[in-house]
Amino acid sequence: MNPNETLEARLERFWAEADEESETEPSATLERILSEGAASPERALFERASLHDFLGQENAAIPLYRAALDSGLAPPHRTAAIIQLASSLRNVGDAASAIALLRAVDEGDPLSAAAQAFLALALYDHGASAHALSTALGALTPSLPAYQRSVSSYASALVSGGNDLPQG
Fold first, then answer.
1. Which pLDDT value is given to residue 160?
2. What are phi and psi of 145, to 5 degrees?
3. Would you kindly state where each structural domain of the chain is located, as residue ranges?
4. On the CB side of 166, how many CA atoms lie within 13 Å of its CA?
5. Distance between CA 41 and CA 34 in Å, rounded?
6. What are the pLDDT digits (tens) for 72-128?
7. Domain 40-159 is in which class?
8. Helix (H) or strand (E) holding 28
9. DSSP secondary-structure letter at 73?
């Protein structure tokens, strides 16, 4: 490890090189980075949760994400933790909780479009296919080079009846 490398740079490199086939090596490497980089407790919880998630261990990740958020994890990692927690919840069959978390992400947040993508997935899993498609189209619409108004209208029409909107 380069002693002049920042915690952010070390973590970025770690995630770029992480190998999901091995549980032991990434865990040991992450712990070393967190201790040497003097990560805040909430940031360390978030990174550990992310590793569990990366390794397909959603049930181990969920309480760590919650603890990081409850401990005051700051932006931009806060929104990432919300999205990743929601994704993990969806993966373990709790789409309703995922929907509630993702709906709370502010429209002005830099990760808002990503939150909308995961919201669409959670809505679909919850059986709200029209709302899922409408959400996905709504997130996509601003990036379209043409037909924004048409796609936006179609997205709105999909849910105008509200017949498959999950409550909560």
1. 87
2. -75, -15
3. 40-159
4. 21
5. 9
6. 999 999 999 999 999 999 999 999 999 999 999 999 999 999 999 999 999 999 999
7. mainly alpha
8. helix 24-36
9. P
